Amino acid sequence: MRPILRVELYAALLPTLLASPSALAQSAASPSVALPELSVVRAPAPGVGTTTPAAENPGSVTVPSVARQRAAVNATVGSVGFVDAKDFQDRYANTLRDVLKDVPGVYAQQRYGQELRLSVRGSGIARGFHLRGLEVLQDGIPFNLADGSGDFYQIDPLALRSAEIYKGGNALTFGATTLGGAVNFVTPTAYTAFAPNILRIDGGSFGTIRENFQVSRISGPVDVMVNGTFTNSDGFRVHETQRTQNFNANIGYQLAPGVETRFYLGGYLTDQKLPGAITLGQSLNTPRIANPTAIAGNQSRKVETERVANRTSFVLDVGKLDIDTWAIHKNLYHPIFQVIDQDGWTYGISPHWAGTFDVGGYRNDTILGLRAFAGQNSAQQFVNIRGQRGAQTLNALQSASNYEAYGENRFWFLPDVALMTGAKLFSSNRTYSNKGGLPASPAVRYDNTTYDGINPKVGLLWQPLPDIQVFADITRSRDVPDFSDLVQQNLLGATFVPLAAQRAWTYEAGSRGRIDRLTWDVTLYRADLRDELINFSTNPGLGIQAATFNAPRTLHQGVEAAVSLDLVRDLTGTGDTLAVTQIWTHNDFRFVRDPVYRGNRIAGIPDDVLRTILSYRHPSGFYLAPSVDWVPRGAFADHANTLRVPGYALFNVETGIDFANGVSLFVDARNLTDERYVSDIAVVTNARTTVGGPAALAAFYPGNGRSVFAGIRASF
User: Fold this and answer.
1) Measuring CA to CA, which of 145, 197, 331, 397 is 20 to 30 A from 528?
2) How confident is the model at residue 444 (pLDDT cuts 50, 70, 90)?
3) What UniProt keywords are attached to this protein's entry (predicted)?
4) Would you place residue 114 in the very low, low, confident or very high pLDDT band (cuts 50, 70, 90)?
């Protein structure tokens, strides 16, 4: 059954579901004055392609306006980020890197196609695939599977209205308390869309062509939005063909004054060929080749995902109550070292209340929530015969359940100073059933483990001026292993390894705001970890799943900084502007007195990642934004720190024009000097002990060469 047909079937079950927006719908819990947005790219002229400027749109009960979304994010006592979709509408936004690359502290690096490494503060630092330690939500509703694992393919950049980044324990507003935090991708409604109708086509290098449409309507108490994107690309490398079809829709209904329900439907189809990892020499000299093993095994990833969710919101005398429910079905066909064939469901419910009231004459903001979600995944494996199933080697069932209660309170004991306290209680179970009966796995095996605990949080927020905030906080995080960690491949086949949960105390301090022409967002943090979940690839060239171990003690610390300055206003006397933005993420991740790796750097992510943008804007709608992505020193490829990849600098240019009639043209040119560089690494323990030595280590993903994309968008 195709994804869209499945969605139509699930629509018949929607009356049984209830849901709501998560924490970000609670504008009542936000300061009365929102901080200005840190603008790092050209913004469209007000009103272009819209019926009203986005900031003036009132939104609705379930999904507030973009201005209120930003205000809720900035009310957080801690490091956060906000991206308005207008900032990436006029670029080739194919992956989440294109959405998040201007957010300090977020490391998003492409491997191939839509596959990338997404890490915040070193979350999942050494994992060479998928996602760990970071919760991905869409419209405030979890997109991760019940065991905490996640993918990126279902998030369509062209179907977004904003992205909200809550780093580390600051994601408690959603109930998330992992090391990396949470990223919430918000889709538009008919109330927040740029225009009632949007048509777009873009394409360019590597045989890329993409079509997108969006239609939204309001009729009395009903509003509807439908968005679809179809992408075809041959890819930079051999055996990297990408075919995706994404469908998102939501239907809202105002049941009564202050009561609204909204249903979400999604169907996502990804068919991605995998070029595999190659050696460092090949990455720097012949980067377009594929690993021969990837071609021989016709390695690929085919994912069909369907999502149905509901959100119902009630405006009460004090605050607002939201209720979310969701169900996600995912089918994965993934021939790599073996054919991984999985099919599973995730479902959950989450009530959430947020309100503001007086305590002894002082303002008090409170958030309270519960989350209960679970799922089962049928996990089968087969011998890979040129991408087809051979003899079956595994027949297992993976079951996960999670029960959470969380709360956060901001007490304004002075008009401009708030004390924040919060905590999350959780219990997470992971059950693995190997049904056996196969030549490669004859024995039946049942493994069960439960992780539980409490994660507290405390902090201070000082807002001396409406446009300036200073904050400091201490948070406790707990990362529960997912099944990719717990079920590992070895000589005995698939074996359950009872790993400990990763624990950390994170300390952070920072400031964000604006003074005249200067806008900044700067945070310093330090995380002391116990039992960090560290990965290393046992044979990256073959695509075998990485092994995971608990490192006794590790340290993650760094700087997350973005500073923007309007250099010249009214440059030519026509109201045009010239601005410069510097984004800097400093990563210092290392082992602490480790019995094997001593004080070495944890491999996988470079020490410094810098991005500089010079942007010119003209009232006519024309803009020009050259930029440089600079990594002074590349990351280590191994935990023994014997092999480091070279640093690099990429020169890019974005330009285009927004016409007053709603038509926009853009050109997005990347890596114009055709720099040869390594984009990501499948980390190993020690490169020197690899068979054939470091020169034979196939653990590197080359970055894309020179590319140019162009597009046209019509909003009406």
Assistant:
1) 145
2) confident
3) Cell outer membrane, Ion transport, Iron, Iron transport, Membrane, Receptor, Signal, TonB box, Transmembrane, Transmembrane beta strand, Transport
4) confident
Q: Give the separation between CA 668 and CA 653, rounded to whole angstroms.
A: 6
Q: 491-505, pLDDT tens digit by residue?
A: 556 888 899 999 999
17, burial (CB in 10 Å: exposed 0-12, middle 13-18, buried 19+): buried
321 Cα distance to chain centroid: 26
In sequence order, what are the residues at sequence separation of 6 or more whose Cβ sits closer than 8 angstroms to the Cβ of residue 520?
38, 511, 512, 513, 514, 561, 562, 563, 564
Q: What percent of the chain has pLDDT over 70?
A: 90
List of residues 6+ apart from 427 with CB closer than 8 A: 402, 403, 404, 450, 451, 452
Taking CA atoms, 136 is separated from 21, 148, 164, 335, 399, in Å, by: 14, 10, 10, 25, 20
Mean predicted lDDT score pLDDT of the chain: 90
The class that CATH gives domain 3-715 is mainly beta
Task: Output the DSSP codes for 270-297.
Answer: EEEE----B-HHHHHH-TT---HHHHHT
Confidence (pTM): 0.91
Write down the pLDDT at residue 438. Answer: 87
| Residues 403, 354 contacting (CB under 8 angstroms) | no
In 3D space, the residue among 537, 409, 554, 410 whose CA is nearest the CA of residue 479 turns out to be 554
In the structure, how many helices (H) and strands (E) does the chain have?
6, 33
Task: Return d(Cα 478, Cα 203) in angstroms, integer.
Answer: 42
How many angstroms separate the CA atoms of 197 and 360, rounded?
A: 50
Cα gap 625→402, rounded to integer Å: 45
Provide the token pair at 33: 């004055």
- Residue 354 CB neighbours (<10 A): 25
The per-residue DSSP string of 136-180 comes to EEETTEE-S-TTS-B-STT--GGG-SEEEEEEGGGGGGGT--SSS
User: What percent of the chain is helix, strand and coil (3-state, nearest 5)?
Assistant: 10, 55, 35
The pLDDT of 478-485, averaged and rounded, is 93
Question: Is the Cβ–Cβ distance between 555 and 592 less than 8 Å?
Answer: yes
Cα separation, 262 vs 326, whole angstroms: 12
Question: How much is the pLDDT for 48?
Answer: 29
Kindly state the percentage of the chain with pLDDT values over 90. Answer: 82
- pLDDT tens for each residue of 677-716: 999 999 999 999 988 899 999 999 999 999 999 999 999 9
Tokens of 470: 């200073």
* Spatial contact of 498 and 550, defined as CB atoms under 8 Å apart: no
Phi, psi at 168, each rounded to 5° = 60, -140
C-alpha distance from residue 676 to each of 141, 174, 236 (Å): 39, 40, 12
- Token readout for 367 is 């958030």
Helix (H) or strand (E) holding 485: helix 483-486
pLDDT at 538: 65
Domain boundaries along the sequence of the chain: 3-715
- Say how far apart CA 443 and CA 79 lie, in whole Å: 49
Helical ranges in 341-422 per DSSP H: none
Tokens representing 95 are 């992956």
- 674 touches 55 (CB < 8 A): no
Residue 544 pLDDT greater than 60, yes or no: no
